[in-house]
Amino acid sequence: QALSAKLKSNVVAKEQSKKVAIIGGGLSGLACAKYLSDAGHTPIVLEARDVLGGKVSAWQDKDGDWIETGLHIFFGAYPNMMNLFNELDIEDRLQWKTHKMIFAMQELPGEFTTFDFVPGIPAPFNFGLAILMNQKMLTLAEKIQTAPPLIPMLIEGQDFIDEQDELSVLDFMRKYGMPERINEEVFISMAKALDFIDPDKLSMTVVLTAMNRFLNETDGLQMAFLDGNQPERLCAPMVEHIEARGGEVKLNQRFREFVLSEDGTKVEGLRMRGGEVIEADEYISAMPVDIMKRLMPKEWANMPYFRQVRELEGIPVINIHMWFDRKLTSVDHLCFSRSPLLSVYADMSTCCKEYADDERSMLELVFAPCSPLAGGKTNWIAKSDEEIVEATMKELARLFPTEIGPGAPDGGAVLRKSAVVKTPRSVYAAIPGRNKYRPSQETPIENFTLAGDWTSQKFLGSMEGAILAGKLAAEVVTDRSAGRPTQGIKSVQQHVIDEANKASEE
Ligand code: FAD
Q1: Cα–ligand 1 centroid distance for 454 (angstroms)
Q2: pLDDT per position as a tens digit, 234-285
Q3: pLDDT at residue number 503
Q4: What is the ipTM score, two decimals?
Q5: What CA–CA distance (Å, rounded) separates 321 from 388?
Q6: Is 120 strand, coil or helix?
Q7: Which of the four pLDDT bands, split at 50, 70 and 90, describes residue 215?
Q8: Pocket of ligand 1 (CB under 6 A)
Q9: Predicted confidence band at 106 (pLDDT cuts at 50, 70, 90)?
Q10: Which of 109, 176, 285, 414 could crosslink 325 through cysteines, CB 3.0-4.6 Å?
Q11: For residue 267, how many C-alpha atoms fall within 13 Å in the half-sphere facing its CB?
Q12: Spatial separation of the C-alpha atoms in residues 325 and 88, rounded to whole Å
């Protein structure tokens, strides 16, 4: 909120207004443009595809049903996102669910258990109580053994959290003598939900960051679904806001190459796919990390700031939609499947107004891990849609044994149709030791700034992280153009600097 207020309270005079070209119309690029327009600048968002939203984009199939890139959950502990909804006056588009978490029981097919947050109990006690009250997932002894290693997180905060980045979740558990069963019962689901990855691959910092953000706020873990597809329900109001203040958002604008000054230290234009060059005063990339790496000018590639980005890469994930001929469940919430191939799922015919259907379920499921990089045995991202749907149906038979499995009467529910969306490179893979390589939004190039969920900010690769990174990039540009000091460039690891020096000597 403070940052929003800062950007709004320092509106520049028209003659000082900068034209800012932003590459990428995902949440980060759009948020960046929104806050730049609030500060009196003139952003122009260039999106390669014919749809906005990037990893939250969605489109309709031939029947008019929406296909989403991902099942997306909003949390109470998303302050920048909540603030954005507020500023756009669209808070009523969030459908808040009961404050609880629902887990499938691994040993009891078809059964679920919940962690209930009692209203009126403040954080973090409401979380402690929710764990204590749940009798099904962990024994009292296991609960008691889990707490001590997590206490430094609450006391020391971010420093302790950052120090754990070199350890995987499994390493951390072993180091602090946490019972192995905590991994099977809790951390596998958490890791898959947070980063589409298994706990032996995931950095402990991710789990602690999430816990720290979620547990310090009473409603931190409360979940909401958007009431419809993201391009229309969230991106469109951002576009309206930007355009009302003189900015532009353009689709089908694929950026190809940076046009640099002779010495490479300034961007002079963006060469687009058709060959035309777009010129602006300031340039921002809000592209995903893997694309930024690919399109990085060779003049920058060995600069330590840009070289560190080599250490980051996107993780694959698959989003599946399954339309059934009947209702499979009446649960109006996200469920943790706790099954080998699936992470979370929800019946969108119940959870989301726009997709409502009283007679038939539409399950949206996140399939993870789906490659060896994420800890999986099979490279699912390379498999056919049919194979992925078949494997998902097998897991669903365990989650819904009386509706789908062999025990189902009249042969069970019929799958009417399905849609599989593969994202081979989604959020950056938060494997151990990556946090230190996430670059600041400010770069060594005087008129070029980075945005995107993977850049350095205190949230993970998430919608909240994307919004915050976009906002921080807008702050860099507004401070710089007003002659105010900026936050500065985040320091780069010494070994990256040494490697860069060595490479330039060769
Ligand atoms: P992106 O959304 O990737 O946007 C980048 C944009 O740049 C894209 O629109 C792309 O088309 C564009 N672009 C790329 N190259 C070019 C080019 N050459 N020229 C012009 N434009 C270009 N987050 C949560 O908080 N909660 C969740 O429940 C959640 N679930 C998820 C489930 C799935 C299956 C997935 C895939 C992601 C999920 N996320 C979730 C993560 C969240 O979607 C992302 O962190 C966030 O949307 C990233 O936004 P971004 O703007 O940084 O990047």
Answers
A1: 10
A2: 999 999 999 999 999 999 999 999 999 999 999 999 999 999 999 999 999 9
A3: 94
A4: 0.99
A5: 11
A6: coil
A7: confident
A8: 23-29, 46-49, 54-56, 69-73, 254-255, 286-288, 291, 317, 319, 366, 423, 426-427, 452-453, 461-466
A9: confident
A10: 414
A11: 28
A12: 38
Q: If pLDDT is split at 50, 70 and 90, which confidence band does 104 have?
A: very high
pLDDT tens digits along 422-468 = 999 999 999 999 999 999 999 999 999 999 999 999 888 999 999 99
E-assigned strand segments in 3-76: 19-23, 42-46, 58-60, 66-68, 74-75
CATH class of 317-423: alpha beta
Q: What is the C-alpha separation between 34 and 243, in angstroms, rounded?
A: 9
Closest CA to 397 of 418, 378, 411, 376: 411
- Ranked by mean pLDDT, which of 35-44, 158-167, 175-184 comes out on top? 35-44
For Cα atoms 347, 468, 85, give the angle at the middle one, nearest 5 degrees. 55
Q: Which two tokens stand for residue 426?
A: 């989604």
Q: Report the side by side order of strands in the sheet with 112-116.
A: 112-116, 100-104, 335-336, 342-347, 362-367, 317-324, 415-423
Query: In 3D, which of 290, 303, 296, 289 has the Cα closest to residue 496?
Result: 303
C-alpha R_g of the chain: 23
Which residue's CA is minimally distant from atom 13 of ligand 1? Answer: 24
Strand duo 335-336 + 100-104: pairing = parallel
- The single-letter DSSP state of residue 177 is T
Tokens of 378: 């099979």
The CATH fold of domain 2-58+229-313+430-505: FAD/NAD(P)-binding domain (3.50.50)
Q: Which of 49, 287, 318, 388 to mutate to test ligand 1, by most ligand atoms within 8 A of the CB atom? A: 287
Nearest to 257 by CA among 23, 495, 17, 504: 23
The residue behind tokens 């909003």 is: 74
Q: Which two tokens stand for residue 9?
A: 């309270």
DSSP tally for the chain: helices H, then strands E: 19, 20
Q: In whole angstroms, what is the distance from residue 506 CA to residue 496 CA? A: 15
Protein residue with its CA nearest to atom 8 in ligand 1 = 54
Q: What is the DSSP letter of 442?
A: B
pLDDT at 156: 85
Among 57, 94, 463, say which to mutate for ligand 1: greatest number of ligand atoms within 8 Å of CB: 463
At residue 415, the pLDDT reads 96
pLDDT at position 150, please? 81
Long-range contacts of the stretch 145-152 (C-beta < 8 A, 24+) = 145/177, 145/178, 145/179, 145/182, 146/178, 146/179, 146/182, 148/176, 149/173, 149/176, 149/177, 149/178, 150/208, 150/211
